[in-house]
Amino acid sequence: MNKNTPLNTGKHPDLKIEVAIIGAGTSGLYTAYRLVTDKKFKASEVQIFDMNNKLGGRLESVVMPGMNFWGELGGMRYLTSQEIVTTLIEGYPLTEEDPAKRTPVLKDKMTPVPFPMGDPTKLLMYLRKERFKQDAWDVAQKEGKKLATRYYLNDDDYGFSSDQLFNKIIYDVLMADPWVAQKYSDKIIKGDSIYDYSFKLTSEDWDDIKPKLVYNFPNSPYDRRKVNDLGFWNLIKDQISQEGYEFVANAGGYYSNTINWNSAEAFPYMVGDFSAGTIYKTIEEGYDSIAYAVANSYMEHDGACIWSENKLLTFTKEHPLIHTHKYQLTFLNLKTNTTWNVYANKLVLAMPRKSLELLDQNNFFFNINENSVLNTNIRSVIMEPAFKILMGFEYPWWKEKQLDIDSGHSITDLPMRQCYYFGTDPQTNNSMLLGSYGDMETETFWKALSDDKLLFEVRAAKSASLTELHELDDVQATQMMVDELMNQLRELHGPDVTIPDPYVTYFKDWTDEPFGAGYHAWKAGYSVENVMPYMRKPVADESIHIIGEAYSDQQGWVEGAFCEAEKMLQEHFGMHRPIWLSPTYYLGW
């Protein structure tokens, strides 16, 4: 797997091309790869521009000194139900059980491996200063008991795990709508146990339900309102009380799942991505390999170029000198701090919300007086902060006999929220932990510590020299942050566990520009079925397109970025579905 993709940090003043793609994240790279490999354009006519010095956008895999495996600072896994990303990694057809008999799509070989979620009989849950094993609810339920926690749940919610409560809420709301109950009751199933709900709804079913679903609870302030117009926090509180909300928000591990985002969009997300039976995989060579593999397939073609460290400032139509090309793009070359122009006939903005907002908002396209609908729709998503702290330890202390944890993640209501036990190098015994998976309101807790000037002092470990470690000085978490995180790790795991200090850290805050967020969520009240296709071509007589994870129906996933790019290519570039993608795979609105 080659991650040394050549990037051009220079410039080519007055470059004339057909398609300018802004953003070398997964949606931008995929667009270039498809346009060129399907011979829609020559590679010299399709060029990619990015202000960063690496590929992959919010994917970033790193190897820490003293360890011979990859850790993830950004996106880190995929679902096997996500067909584009799975096929690009694993080949096609996916129905072929033997991977050796599948035909690869990309030249670079990637090694799919399970993303281990660990053993719930060993993994911890630490809530309101009380420690459980993650299977404690199941154990109690099998014995006919209800697990008592320090949350004062409603009588009919008492004893449910957070996952079970999410399912119960979604079941009750769906079945309270007579139309949904009549049409889909065979796919919305209540089991024999009071805790057991299952949903066999396809993505197409959900897209049928989401815009129409009505909230039918006569004693509620939200009675008869569209679920699409309700915030998820509002709905959860109405169903299971504020105390119930606190429980599912804390025990679920992600505050971003329970913020006040669009309830209709939250429903399939909660029963699909975070339910039992979901199969996660990752790439042994690091999850950002998917971006590099797509980029390399584009770069194989003569004239292909990825202009890195070139920041788009603005684009205009009024350029009297060039009559052959529709748009003039002005870039700032970050190496030389000088500007240069590129001329293109089509513009693909493969960018999240914050990156779009950093562009010149007074130009003809973004001007609020000209395009108020675009302005409103750009802000139809919530920017969800996310940051990660990888920590290197000299041995896997979580595998010691008191814990005996192999992999997976422990969850807490402390500001660290989750830690993932990432892996151990068999040669050195050095081990990696994702020390915090902060999101939403915990972000301000860590931001105050990350702004401190005193950085963590790396120290030598087996096969990790100080020289090598000092190369990571500028990505160390602050000493205060590490000290605070160690306190929380020790509190989460309990007084019987001895946790050593790390020898190295790696800190990434995705709220930093140009990303502005780790991932995105639709706001309540927006018609997502209209906004998604709108963003792919916001202005009828302009060849300007906006794609990416932010405005997809799989926010937070690479697949969302790929699906938006693929739909844009089919709708606005006249391209056919690729032969490697099954004809029945649903790409969404």
Automatic annotation (TrEMBL):
GO terms for molecular function: L-amino-acid oxidase activity. One of its GO terms (biological process) is amino acid catabolic process. InterPro entries: FAD/NAD-bd_sf (IPR036188), Flavin_monoamine_oxidase (IPR050281). This is Flavin containing amine oxidoreductase. Pfam families: NAD_binding_8. SUPFAM superfamilies: FAD-linked reductases, C-terminal domain (SSF54373), FAD/NAD(P)-binding domain (SSF51905). It comes from Chryseobacterium oleae.
